[in-house]
Design goal:
7-stranded mixed β-sheet, 3 domains, N-(1-d-carboxylethyl)-l-norvaline Dehydrogenase, domain 2, 8-stranded mixed β-sheet, alpha/beta, 19 helices, 507 residues, elongated, Rossmann fold
Length: 507
């Protein structure tokens, strides 16, 4: 794919955090860069700030002093839009307001050459709508960088309804030549990352709203059992509750209030109270010098059973049998009749089983304790347990002791369908399958975007390949029964993939 030549001018309009970051990326890649801001003096301040960041790169040994000096010489603040006339690419990073962006690009269209690529860094507006005021919308694309732009590798290259394929390929090639990892996507609310990531926040908020667990415990389970880098509560505190809630609301409204994207009332109240996260000193958690990090609810040590029974296969948790035997606990075959699905039989008769989308009390075939899905049962350091109402108290302690013997911390939470990691991963699989099925992006690009854009431990497509589309489909079907209304209805793409898996099993 043809990239913009390094000696061609790149212009950046808007000199906030994102504008400065994008300008720095283009500079380091060798381009002459022009900075423009509508507020007088801002472009000069931004140029000085970028120069300071280049100095710090030299101090850290990440940039040669001669390269720093050459980059500084290529950076020029512009006092008027007319000074961008020779740009080969103009990237806009101004206020997230449609009318402002449309007016800017309409003005630029009268200034730049016909072969100049025009790009918006918008994260929430329609690329098609921004380009709607242009005479030649074919050369307009979205180039959505992630903050901080110099550090994060992902760039979403967004094609609007009228974007020419050649323009999208040129934008993609340019991002690659800048050392970024671009992914192609269609113009859809949230693009890839902000669309597919919604369940990571939404399911945690729903568990909290049902009072099944507190924010610190939910975060710990998703980190230490699910393998996510940060929990959703600490992450939204870092992003800003107002920012995260606004993105959620924007995507929900853009999808005509689809229940799959419904915002959280609890988060809305947090924003209304001014508890915006780290920047305000209080979000889900308090922030300040000397304050201890929030701690998860963790069970006290309990004695592990000497022996357990095993009924059928444990599915995604099958490795637990080996781990239990390696820990010196005897495993016998449980011959309980007329029971489908695998479980571990505890001494007093309670069944310990992997969450399947229903509550432990909702399974009427016996007394149950559910445990959560783990990314890797061997390496995870925490497990969540949800005892049913009729679970024997001694067996609850035995289940705690069993996982503690396997080297895990245990969080006992209230009953909630699908628990924490299970429902989150099932929904992420479905959102990714839906996006791929609708042509938003390829399955490979979706996985790349989620791993690089939000640091997921794996892509939703990879999880689907490991857990199975049938697993995700049945899990969500059970959740859909527990929460009627469409939020957990499987997408046609996931149902189709599950049908194909079922056909392979039967053949």
């Amino acid at each position: 794919m043809t990239a913009i030549e390094p000696d061609r001018v790149v212009a950046v309009v808007g000199t906030g955090t994102m504008g400065q970051g994008i300008a720095q990326v283009a500079l380091v890649a060798g381009h002459p860069v022009r900075l423009y801001d509508a507020v007088p003096g801002r472009a000069e301040q931004a140029a000085a700030s970028i120069g300071g960041r280049l100095d710090r790169l030299v101090e850290k040994g990440r940039l040669d002093p001669a390269a720093r000096d050459a980059a500084r010489a290529r950076l020029h603040p512009a006092a008027e839009l007319a000074e961008l006339a020779d740009a080969a690419l103009v990237v806009e990073a101004v206020l997230e307001r449609l009318s402002v962006k449309q007016e800017l690009f309409a003005a630029l269209e009268d200034i730049v050459a016909d072969d100049c690529l025009l790009a918006t860094n918008t994260s929430s507006l329609s690329v098609t709508a921004v380009a709607g005021a242009l005479r030649r919308p074919g050369r307009f694309v979205g180039l959505h960088f992630f903050n901080p732009a110099p550090l994060l590798p992902l760039v979403e290259v967004v094609s609007g309804f009228a974007t020419d394929e050649a323009a999208a390929e040129r934008a993609y090639g340019t991002a690659r030549s800048w050392g970024k990892t671009p992914v192609r996507c269609a113009d859809t609310p949230g693009f890839v990352v902000n669309r597919v990531a919604r369940p990571f926040y939404a399911e945690a908020l729903r568990v909290y709203e049902e009072r099944a667990a507190d924010p610190a415990t939910i975060d710990a389970v998703l980190r230490e059992c699910g393998g996510f880098r940060m929990g959703p509560f600490e992450l939204t505190d870092l992003i800003g509750q107002d920012v995260n809630e606004a993105v959620t609301r924007s995507v929900w409204e853009s999808f005509f209030q689809d229940p799959k994207f419904t915002p959280s009332l609890a988060q809305r109240r947090l924003v209304e109270s001014g508890r915006l996260g780290r920047k305000s000193g209080q979000g889900w958690f308090p922030y300040g010098e000397g304050l201890a990090a929030p701690s998860a609810q963790t069970a006290e040590p309990c004695e592990a059973p000497d022996a357990v029974g095993l009924h059928a296969d444990l599915g995604p948790a099958a490795v637990l049998r080996e781990m239990i035997e390696e820990a010196g606990i005897k495993v016998t075959r449980d011959r309980t009749p007329y029971v489908s699905g695998g479980f571990i039989g505890l001494p007093a008769g309670t069944r310990l089983s992997l969450t399947d989308g229903m509550t432990a009390t909702g399974d009427f075939s016996g007394a149950y304790i559910h445990f959560d899905l783990a990314l890797d049962y061997r390496s995870c350091t925490r497990i969540a347990l949800a005892p049913g109402a009729d679970a024997d108290p001694d067996d609850v302690r035995a289940a705690i002791g069993l996982f503690q013997r396997l080297g895990k911390q245990v969080s006992v939470i209230g009953e909630t369908p699908g628990m924490i990691v299970g429902r989150t991963v099932a929904m992420l699989i479905d959102f990714a399958a839906d996006a791929a099925g609708r042509g938003v992006a390829s399955a490979e690009d979706i996985d790349t975007a989620m791993k690089l854009g939000v640091n997921y431990p794996g892509g939703p497509g990879e999880w689907c390949g490991r857990l199975g589309a049938l697993w995700a489909y049945h899990f969500l079907s059970t959740l859909d029964g527990a929460y009627p209304g469409g939020r957990y209805a499987s997408s046609p793409a996931l149902r189709h993939r599950a049908d194909l898996e079922a056909k392979e099993v039967r053949s």
